[in-house]
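ugh ok fine here u go
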Amino acid sequence: MTNGTAARVQRVVWDIVLTVILLIATFVILLVAVFFDLFAVAFTDYCPAGCNSGAGVAVIFTVWICSAVVAVVGTIFSLVRLVRRRRAWWFALATLLLVIIGSIAAFWLYASIIGY
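structure:
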């Protein structure tokens, strides 16, 4: 008998550890992508003929902002799930994959706009 209160769900330690590792990896990959994209943007002065460096820089900065928003929202959702004692590792994994896909897409779009 539970005295009118709901039974508390037991925390799963591996879920907490995996979620934290995936979220840290998300922000590390985001910072590494920003670092490499910043170097790509830094050398747009030597843009070959027919390229549009302004559009390339706009793509990079737009994807940076979107990736940062995805990382923060995914972190918030993961932490809320952990506080509510629900499985959260798949939110953190989805956040990591979205940041990776966004980073690859940003560099690919930048390279196609610049003409490399």
